[in-house]
Design brief:
By secondary structure, the chain is α/β, with parallel strands linked by helices. Helices cover 40% and strands 19% of the residues. The strands form 5 sheets. Strands 7-6-15-16-17-14-18 form a 7-stranded mixed β-sheet. The chain has a 5-stranded parallel β-sheet with strand order 9-2-1-13-19, with helices on one face. The chain binds flavin-adenine dinucleotide (FAD). Flavin-adenine dinucleotide (FAD) binds next to helix 1, strand 14, helix 17 and helix 19.
């Protein structure tokens, strides 16, 4: 008889784990507390508007391709992936506009309008990230950090030049690395911003995260036609294809533990589900706080989780307008005047910045299905501090909404306020309440220290046999490709532990 696996949560990591396990012959059941799958990858549809409420860009599409192949399907048959080039339009407070491209020659030509020196250094900067990727991807991203000696020797095998070690263990921050390559302050801000892709500050996250711009420029920026939520819908088709049982509106109350470890889960609506192993796709800090019974929580580990700094959160406005903004691209950034102050506000003062950098995604610029004729669907995202007593979104949400709209109007979205015909606000409190994101953190934990890449919790619970984790708060990290990989890693560990592989 096949072994049974219960998965808590139908976020992307949970669905990826389920597909891998079912394809290997396990009986897999997913229990999702919300009425729809996707977790942070979600959708709001109303009166002809379609808004992705979370992710707005897909990188490393081959990770998704591999997942589809596991289920005997093809990503490119299921979704039309549209490459975006220019990849993003950056607008600076001094009025300067800079469009990025995934074509190196074009990027160098545009950067040279700011600085010849910076244009020459752009390929060197990407090369730094490329080497880090080549050295670390296999041992760190694609596999469990299971036995440190194996990871260490896999790393050593790849270090074939002295400068490789210096790159992987570099004691400098991403910002310091950026400053070594780019002199123009505009360029520095553009490349510093990549720290936010892992929920961190460029002034504290280590230089190894130069891997992020490399990945974006090398693998491209993709938009699935119809919106990012099409990816979640396609994953549901894969679940059905491999025979996963998906239960929506099925919140889990707790993990059931016995003398020899995890025995299953208990549903809020009543009923125990026995299982040979359980995967929690819920944020690991939330899992230990609410789902693992108190007497089964390893104290030292729970204390370590509590001491780890959460990642950035986000304040989101979904705005439907009755006019077009033709100067918008699909992805747009409106920068703050003082980036260092912005991150100081977010991570040290833990308050929403008064002069935020604002990201605007208008999928309506490339896809007519996203907004009624003559309108735009603006997904507006501002980096926000994780929840703490230092800032109250309940008190500030309307004021902050006004501050963001004022800035967008000043920076070129003329008359925005009068043209909004549909509006929703999503605060960090909503992210916590809807998806169980601890303190509203988008990516679980920040990577704001030198050892962050090694400190992320792993995919198998310490001291609690039978409990595993998949999702953005655990190895290898947040963001769509990485959470898909975390699902694969959790599935591989289970297959190995249950003696199936
Ligand atoms: C505003 C925003 C913008 C983002 N932009 C990007 C981007 O452009 N590109 C990118 O790659 N990534 C982006 N991300 C990050 C990306 O969305 C996440 O890293 C990823 O979707 C997290 O997946 P996960 O597997 O960790 O599951 P989660 O999304 O965290 O889902 C966990 C699931 O568990 C469920 N759950 C919780 N508690 C229970 C319970 N007790 N019982 C049953 N179910 C439960 C939740 O309802 C949820 O469905 C963004 C995220 C946000 C919020």
């Amino acid at each position: 008889m096949s072994k049974t696996i219960a998965i808590i949560g139908a976020g992307v990591g949970g669905m990826a784990a389920a597909i891998h396990l079912a394809a290997q012959g396990f009986r897999v059941q997913i229990f999702e507390r919300n009425a729809s799958v996707g977790g942070k990858l979600n959708l709001l549809e109303c009166d002809g508007w379609r808004f992705d409420t979370g992710p707005s860009l897909l990188t490393m599409p081959d990770v998704a391709r591999d997942l589809f192949a596991v289920a005997g399907a093809s990503l490119d048959d299921a979704l039309e992936l549209v490459p975006l080039d220019p990849t993003c339009r950056y607008t600076f407070p001094d009025g300067i506009i800079f469009d990025t491209s995934s074509e190196q020659e074009r990027m160098m030509a545009t950067i040279s309008e700011f600085s010849e020196h910076d244009a020459e250094h752009f390929p060197r900067f990407l090369d730094y990230g490329r080497r880090v990727y080549e050295i670390t991807a296999e041992p760190f991203l694609f596999n469990a950090l299971d036995g440190m000696p194996q990871v260490g020797s896999a790393l050593l095998r790849r270090l074939n030049r002295p400068q490789d070690l210096a790159r992987v263990l570099s004691p400098i921050t991403l910002h310091q690395l950026v400053k070594r390559h780019f002199r123009d302050p505009h360029m520095q801000q553009v490349f510093d911003r990549y720290a936010t892709y892992n929920g961190s500050s460029p002034y504290r996250t280590p230089a190894v995260y130069a891997i992020i711009p490399y990945v974006e420029y090398h693998f491209g920026v993709w938009y699935p036609r119809g919106g990012l939520y099409r990816l979640a819908e396609a994953l549901v088709d894969l679940l059905a294809k491999v025979g996963v049982e998906l239960h929506l509106n099925a919140p889990v109350r707790r993990v059931i533990c016995g003398g020899r470890g995890v025995m299953g889960i208990e549903l809020v609506e009543g009923g125990d589900i026995p299982a040979d192993a359980v995967i929690s796709n819920v944020d690991i800090a939330t899992t230990y706080r609410y789902l693992v019974p108190e007497d089964a929580r390893p104290r030292a580990f729970v204390e370590r989780l509590a001491s780890m700094e959460p990642s950035l959160s986000g304040f989101v406005l979904l705005l439907g307008t009755d006019c077009r903004y033709d100067h918008l691209l699909h992805h747009n950034i409106y920068f703050s005047d003082n980036y260092r102050q912005e991150f100081f506000d977010i991570f040290e003062r833990r308050v929403a910045p008064r002069d935020p950098t604002i990201y605007v995604c208008a999928t309506s610029r490339t896809d007519a299905t996203q907004a009624p004729d003559g309108g735009e669907n603006l997904f507006v995202l501002v980096n926000a501090p994780y929840l703490s007593d230092d800032f109250s979104w309940t008190a500030e949400r309307e004021n902050y909404r006004d501050l963001v709209i004022d800035k967008l109007e000043r920076m070129g979205l003329v008359g925005l306020r009068e043209h909004i015909v549909f509006e929703r606000i999503i605060t960090p409190e909503d992210l916590e309440a809807r998806y169980g994101a601890q303190r509203g953190a988008i990516y679980g934990f920040s990577s704001n220290s030198l050892f962050a890449p090694f400190a992320r919790p792993q995919n198998r619970a310490p001291d609690l046999p039978g409990l595993y984790f998949a999702g953005g708060s655990v190895h290898p990290g947040g963001g769509l490709p990485l959470v898909m990989l975390s699902g694969k890693i959790a599935a591989d560990l289970i297959a190995r532990d249950l003696g199936v592989s």
